[in-house]
Amino acid sequence: MKIDYCNRDACKACTLRARCTGNRFRCVSRLESEAVLDRMAERLAKRPGILDLRRESVEHPFGTIKQSMNQGAFLMRRLENVRGEFSLTALAYNIRRAITIVGIPGMIAALQAWD
Asked: Which of 2, 11, 60, 114 is the most buried (most CB within 10 A)?
C-alpha cells in the first residue's frame, strides 16, 4: 500500500520550494513497508557478499525444483494441502541430491546401517 504525504502549508512558507518543486506543493510517496526495505538495504550495504552466499545456498534448490522437476505452480489449494505438496517435492529433491552426491550404493549402505 502506498502512502502519500503532502503538507501544503509548509510548502507555502518554505524558502527552498523553488529548488524542491515547480508546483505549489510537493507530495512524497512511500510504501507502507518501505522502512523494512530501507533496513534491508542498509544490511546489504554493510555486507555485500551475503546476497551472493544466499543465492548459492537458498535460491538454487528452488530454481532446481522449478526448472528440472517441473514444479512451477502448486496444483493444490489451501495452505495445508500446499504444505503437503511442497513437502513431497522437497523430499524428492533431497533424495535426488543424496543420490547425486553419495550414489545409490552409498544410499543403500546408509539405510542398512540405520537399522
From this structure: 11
